[in-house]
Task: inverse folding
């Protein structure tokens, strides 16, 4: 056989094999394959096409427009250029995978991925569409989308969706001419409901409240669930109204929606809410800041306007931001050792000797600036940093007592330390104190813990037990700021205290005003009758000091005797004072605060 004929026969065999492979793919693929001409008429289909679209025979589709199988309305919604891949597509659309909506014979729409290629045959252009049913994949995507952007308990949009909504309303093109009110709404009775009925019924309440509020507040830009028992709403403020007006109108809608009691699990409960809000973009120009400020507004409302609505002001933001900055600075100050102890003497009013001192904390920044305790102590308490500060000053006191053990004068000085409620309520606080005394090898009797009446009243069962243990260890317990707190006389009778500090407030008018004198005298006598030693603080004049001495108080403290001073100055003060003191003298020495 000639070589050229053999080559032609080989090419024919290869071509036939190629055709058979293509036919096998065409018949056995799980995708629908549809061929149509340049007039968009269907030329051929495979078996899967009939199954996928619900047709019985090829004759029902051959010659029909390709759009017979496509849901044009839905496709248009999902893709801007349907003509690019349905019908005769532009060249730019060929070879691209698109997600569109197809249409079954009964009109049911379903998602498909479609890929279109073209070829020429006898001078005519044809198109091949490979179509894959994506119903199951779409259902999975929908479930994932729902889990990402919708709350599982209530079915409401979640914080992720809120973030997207805020991006939209805070777009520069929108905010140029629009104002929005963002509100954070919380259920007032949630803690009591969870405690009384349990978490399951509590979740039922959250779900029911969400349903009512959603209906009451529509239409709005957004309504969804936030954290825990809280919901978030976003409204556009009409040009003719203020944010305050919209907030008040909205809150009244919520009150009306929640006016009927809620019934769940055989219970019947009335619900009220508290709401905080802010105007955007007036106070916030990005989503993260808007969400932070909404939380801020809610907590302001919760603490000061419970059961009402409150709108955040620029002054609120400035104050909270200043506090937040101070919290950060306090944390850094603890790490950078910017805090240090000072000692304010307590004077024995009979001998004039310095019998004790109160160890106080001071803050000097790296730049040398002093930060007032009146500024940072309340912030530290609210930010749960007071324990760190309390631990620091307690350990500094232990270190000072250890250093003074060998000094004949300084070793006689008892150091008093203020103990916060947070410290006293800790399960391991008493053990921490015991270990510290062992570590520094100092006697418990060298220390005095000053505890306010409010601290005792906060959690009596826990604090009384801790105080009793500390007292058994030998630490003197003093009731600080006596007469200004929340304690009852019965509470003071039962607590293991050995001293009371009369607050400076009771020195107003002393000794000129007889009513003031009588009140102070009665308080001192009451404390003495309860076997408590008495320290009067806030003494600032010689006249007050002399009058207090006539009441047979054991100690006096105040600027008349000495201001708080750093350790070296305090040591000199004790040596000078105790060496020179004479019985019956009311000693006066003022030392400037360093």
Result:
């Amino acid at each position: 056989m000639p070589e050229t004929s053999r080559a032609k026969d080989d090419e024919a065999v290869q071509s036939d094999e190629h055709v058979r492979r293509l036919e096998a793919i065409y018949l056995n693929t799980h995708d629908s394959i549809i061929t149509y001409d340049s007039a968009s008429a269907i030329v051929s289909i495979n078996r899967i096409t009939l199954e996928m679209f619900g047709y019985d025979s090829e004759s029902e589709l051959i010659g029909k427009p390709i759009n017979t199988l496509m849901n044009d309305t839905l496709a248009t919604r999902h893709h801007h250029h349907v003509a690019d891949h349905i019908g005769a597509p532009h060249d730019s659309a060929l070879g691209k995978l698109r997600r569109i909506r197809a249409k079954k014979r009964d009109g049911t729409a379903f998602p498909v991925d479609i890929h279109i290629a073209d070829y020429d045959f006898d001078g005519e252009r044809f198109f091949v569409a490979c179509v894959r049913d994506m119903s199951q994949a779409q259902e999975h995507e929908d479930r994932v989308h729902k889990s990402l952007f919708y709350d599982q308990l209530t079915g409401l949009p979640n914080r992720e969706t809120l973030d997207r909504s805020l991006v939209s309303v805070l777009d520069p093109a929108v905010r140029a001419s629009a104002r929005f009110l963002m509100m954070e709404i919380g259920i007032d009775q949630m803690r009591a409901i969870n405690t009384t009925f349990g978490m399951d019924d509590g979740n039922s309440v959250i779900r029911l409240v969400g349903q009512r509020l959603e209906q009451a507040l529509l239409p709005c830009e957004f309504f969804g669930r936030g954290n825990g028992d809280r919901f978030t709403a976003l409204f556009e403020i009409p040009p003719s109204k203020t944010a305050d007006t919209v907030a008040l109108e909205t809150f009244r809608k919520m009150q009306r929606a929640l006016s009927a009691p809620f019934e769940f699990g055989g219970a019947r409960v009335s619900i009220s809410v508290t709401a905080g809000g802010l105007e955007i973009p007036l106070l916030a120009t990005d989503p993260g800041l808007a969400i932070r400020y909404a939380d801020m507004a809610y907590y302001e409302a919760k603490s000061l306007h419970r059961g009402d609505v409150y709108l955040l002001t620029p002054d609120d933001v400035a104050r909270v931001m200043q506090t937040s900055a101070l919290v950060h600075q306090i944390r850094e100050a603890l790490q950078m050792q910017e805090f240090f102890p000072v000692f304010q003497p307590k004077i024995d009013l009979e001998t004039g000797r310095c019998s004790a001192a109160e160890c106080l904390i001071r803050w000097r920044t790296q730049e040398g600036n002093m930060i007032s305790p009146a500024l940072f102590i309340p912030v530290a308490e609210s930010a749960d940093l007071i324990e760190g500060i309390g631990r620091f000053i307690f350990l500094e006191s232990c270190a000072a007592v250890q250093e003074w053990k060998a000094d004949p004068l300084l070793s006689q000085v008892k150091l008093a330390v203020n103990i916060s409620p947070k410290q006293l309520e800790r399960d391991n606080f008493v053990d921490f104190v015991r270990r510290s005394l062992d570590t520094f090898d100092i006697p418990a009797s060298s220390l005095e813990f000053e505890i306010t009446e409010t601290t005792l009243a906060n959690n009596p069962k826990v604090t009384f037990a801790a105080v009793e243990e500390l007292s058994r260890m030998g630490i003197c317990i003093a009731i600080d700021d006596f007469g200004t707190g929340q304690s009852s006389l019965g509470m003071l009778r039962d607590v293991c205290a050995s001293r009371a500090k009369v607050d400076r407030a009771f020195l107003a008018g002393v000794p000129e005003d007889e009513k003031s004198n009588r009140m102070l005298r009665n308080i001192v006598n009451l404390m003495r009758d309860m076997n408590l030693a008495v320290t009067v603080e806030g003494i600032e004049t010689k006249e007050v000091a002399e009058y207090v001495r006539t009441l047979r108080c054991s100690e006096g403290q105040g600027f008349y005797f000495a201001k708080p001073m750093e350790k070296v100055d305090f040591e000199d003060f004790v040596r000078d004072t105790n060496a020179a003191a004479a019985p019956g003298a009311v000693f006066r020495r003022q030392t400037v605060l360093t």
